[in-house]
Structures are given as C-alpha cells and as structure tokens.
Amino acid sequence: MKKTAIAMCVVVLLAGCYQAHDERVQVAPGVRNDSLGNNIITRPLGGIVSFVIGEGVVVNNVKEARTPEGFLEVQVSGFNQSMFKKRFDYKTDWLDSNGMLIDTVMSKWMTVSVTPKSTFTFKVTSPTADSADFRINTRIARNLDK
Amino acid sequence: MKTKWFTLSVAAWAFIIAGCTPPTKNIDTANDEGKAVMELDYRDFDQAATEMVQSMLSSGVFKKVDGNRYVVTTAKIINDTMQRIDTDQLTFKIEQDLINSGQVVMTAAVGGKGATDQMVYQMRDLRDSEKSDEFKQGTMPGKGQIIAPELSISGKIYQKNIRYDNNIQQVEYYFQLRVAEIASGLSYWQKEAFIGKRGSKKVVPW
C-alpha cells in the first residue's frame, strides 16, 4: 500500500502540471511544464531513443503563390521531430515552363536551424516571372557554431 | 662518399616535403563543404546577394505603375570592413539577377564609381573630336540619348570585431542595402543581411 502511494506520488510529480495549449505555439521541452512523458528523468531517455531511431525533420506543407509582379513564391513548413537541434542547408532550382533550369544567383545554399520538437518555415522567391516549377534540395549544414 | 650521402639525404628531404604539400584542387562551388573562414569569402557574398535579391523581388519595389521598367543605377557601396573588398562582388550578382528578372534595366552610364561602361562617354568624346569624321555619322551616339536612372541602390558593408572569450573572437559582418527614388529621395526598400563568425583570436580577419 505504501509502495503504491509512493509510486502514485512519483507519477504525479513527473506528470507536473502540463496543459495542452494552442497548437500554433510550440513550447519547447524544458520551457513548458513537465509531463509524464517529458520530464527531467524521461527527457534524456527520449533523447537516446530519438537519436537511435534517427528522428529528423519532416516537411508538412508546401505552399505556392504568385506575387502581383508574377514571381512564384514557395513556402516550405515542417517540423523537427528530433530531440536535438537540426540544421540544414537548402537550395532551390527554378525551372521555366519548358522545364529548363533558370540561371540565377538565387540558387545558393541557405541555412535553416530548427530547435528540437519545433516547427520551421522558409520562403523562396523565383528569380523571374517565367518560373513555373522548382526543385528544393537539402543537405546537412556544416561549419556552424554550436 | 660523404658528398654522395649528403646529396641523397637532401633529395630525400625534398621528396618528403614535396609529398606533404597539399595538392591544388578546384572548389566544388555547387556543393562546397569547405571550412568556414574568418574573412568574407564567395559563399558569404552569395548568401548576402541571395537574401537581398529575394527580398527586393518579393517586395514589389520595382513594380512601376505604368507597367514600364525602372532604370536603375548602383550608387556607392561603402566598404567599412578591415578587408580590401571590391564591392562589385556583391552588387554585380544583385544587378545580374535584377536584370534577368525582367523588372528593371540597369544603366551603364552612371554609377557610384562613375560610368560602369566608360565606352558610353569615350564614344561621345570621339564624336566631338576631329576623329569623328572617320565614323559613319548615323552610327554615332547623338546628344540627349542617355536615359537617366530613376532608382538608385546604395549601401554599406561593415565589420565589427568582438572578443568572445580569451581564445575566441567574434566577427560580425553587416550588409546593408537600400533602394531610393532619385527624383524624390524617398527610400522604397532596405534590408540588412548579417553574417557572423566565431573563431580563433589568432586569425586576423583582414
């Protein structure tokens, strides 16, 4: 009986006072209230699991729109599922209506840094109004300070 | 015998030293994963130019009410860094994409460093000289033909060195550009791109 009571207390303590909030606001682990699955004890374990199963960045949404001048704007949104900061470079290749590559200085590697369990969004604008399609490539970002 | 051994050892050392010299390689500019450097390198200029052009084009600053294209010039870009930078490294890329965007026409007749194409004025000097007779007159540039720029791009690149800790220094580079209408002096667009680096205090960033 005593053991059960202690266990219950531990569970309540670990669970903390976490309350669900507006999904548009991402409150990072360690910033928000602890929960049963995310607290000072389970967080390091979560980190190990996240590392072992290789969690990373997922792209949830790609939006396209034309500016009044006719430039194609692409917005990429996603989520870092990992328990670790993820940093990557992206490069956009722009294609015209014939599928031919458009030569531009804007096709360069740009860096995105995403905190653990957080969303990210980046936007790219086409170099010409003739741009009809795009390809975005990514790679792991190096040469960045910790 | 001694001379022979000496010659052999010198040759062996020369061979070893030559073997240790890193071979020269071309940079894979499409996928350069080389180490970062404390000074500004081409990757930094590429990044700054990309940010600037993207912002300019998406802002709609070059959309002219009458549907025509603006005539644009690049005014002075001040190099306020400790490095000897040709600011054309930044502006040339930007101008290139602005022209290719079809939104503007860049003028080569005026600029922050004078005419970007001296031939515009050399031909006029020739026209007014006695050598003018050597040219077919209809092919010579007439007076009152040069189109004045309506918008001007100006800016500054500046550097700030900060002691991060005893062994590390932080070097901050700020790229600031603005687009102003020459007739009214009004600024229509401006942006700052930032590039920061941390590294050994022993490396001198100039």
How is the topology of this model organized?
The complex is a heterodimer of chains A (146) and B (206).
Chain A: H1 2-15, H2 42-53, E1 57-66, E2 72-80, E3 86-95, E4 110-114, E5 119-125, E6 133-140
Antiparallel strand pairs in A: 1-2, 2-5, 3-4, 3-6
Chain B: H1 2-20, H2 42-59, E1 70-80, H3 88-100, E2 104-106, H4 119-128, E3 151-163, E4 168-181, E5 187-200
Helix pairs in contact in B: 2-3
Euclidean distance between termini CA atoms of chain B: 51 Å
Main beta sheet of chain B: strand number and arrangement? 5 strands, mixed
Strand content of chain A: 25-35%
- State the secondary-structure class of chain A: alpha+beta
Shape of chain A: elongated
Description:
- The complex is a heterodimer of chains A (146) and B (206).
- Chain A contains two helices and six strands.
- Chain A has 146 residues and is α+β, with helices and mostly antiparallel strands.
- Chain A has two domains: 1-40, no CATH class; 55-146, Immunoglobulin-like, CATH 2.60.40.
- Chain A has a three-stranded antiparallel beta sheet with strand order 1-2-5, with no helix packed on it. A three-stranded antiparallel beta sheet of chain A has the order 4-3-6, with no helix packed on it.
- The mean pLDDT of chain A is 86.
- The mean pLDDT of chain B is 90.
- Chain B contains four helices and five strands; from the N terminus they run H-H-E-H-E-H-E-E-E.
- In chain B, a hairpin with a 4-residue loop joins strand 3 (151-163) and strand 4.
- In chain B, helix 2 runs parallel beside helix 3 (88-100).
- The longest helix of chain B is centred in the N-terminal third of the chain and has 19 residues, at 2-20.
- Chain B has helices at 2-20, 42-59, 88-100, 119-128; strands at residues 70-80, 104-106, 151-163, 168-181, 187-200.
- Chain B has a domain at 73-133 and 151-206: Rossmann fold.
- In chain B, strands 2-1-3-4-5 form a five-stranded mixed beta sheet, with helices on one face.
- Chain B is extended, with a radius of gyration of 25 Å.
- Chain B is an alpha/beta fold and 206 residues long.
- Chain A binds chain B through residues 67-69, 71, 73, 103-106, 108-110, 123-130, 139, 142-143, 145, and chain B through 31, 33, 35-36, 43, 46-47, 49-51, 53-54, 57-58, 60, 62-63, 93-94, 96-97, 100-103, 198.
